[in-house]
Amino acid sequence: MEKIIIASNNAGKLREFNALSTQFGIHAVTQGELGIGEAEEPYATFVENALTKARHAARIGKLPALADDSGICVPALGGAPGVWSARYAGEPKSDARNNEKLLADMQGITDRRAFFYCALVFVRAADDPQPIIADGVWHGEITHAPRGSGGFGYNPVFNIPNLNLTAAEINDGQKNALSHRGQALQVLIEKLAQFGLITAHG
After folding, report:
1. Please, which residues bridge with residue 180 across strands?
2. How far apart are the first and last CA of the chain?
């Protein structure tokens, strides 16, 4: 496997996926580079949405494709924002407005537990009967105000209790080691190796 499509136009996610391409000598191209538009995400689960995005990119691009669907889930809000994380505050998508809405919805709530969840799906082709699926979870809590300027999405309002820092206050190396997407990538790498799709030497 020498070339794959990353079924995302999110710059932050693309930086995190670079670890896979650089470590194993895989040339990763984004769906945007190939003129592939975003797929619909109509499902209520992360896995179904990620699978839809991967199949969409592979079908149009005629290459293996990797997609993720991820979000932040707050038990006190019934699991919201969940799969609607990117559009929690409506269209157009806005990290700042999403964070504002989440903090507003959390006013007066003492149980501030939250977790990020990531589902990764890799398909060899659009009609792959055996998609390779990996996931990861990152536990934390919602802050009372944004902190930090790094990362993207809900990072400024997601506090890591044992560090007492938000995901926007840690460096990329720390984040990749701790995050839901970093965990999912490690599981995916192990599975790709098991199927002989990558080797430790690229």
Report:
1. none
2. 9
- Cα separation of 10 and 152, whole Å? 9
- Give catalytic status of residue 69 as yes or no: yes
Q: What pLDDT sits at residue 1?
A: 67
- What pLDDT score does 2 carry? 79
- Pairing relationship of beta strands 158-160 and 27-30 according to DSSP bridges: unpaired
Judged by DSSP in three states, 82 sits in: helix
Catalytic residue among 69, 95, 111, 172: 69
DSSP state of 80: -
DSSP class of residue 36 equals P
Residue 85 is encoded by which pair of tokens?
A: 């994380």
User: What residues form DSSP beta bridges with 160?
Assistant: 165
198 pLDDT more than 50: yes
Instruction: Check residue 200 and give its pLDDT.
Output: 59
Q: 108: which 2 tokens?
A: 């007066």
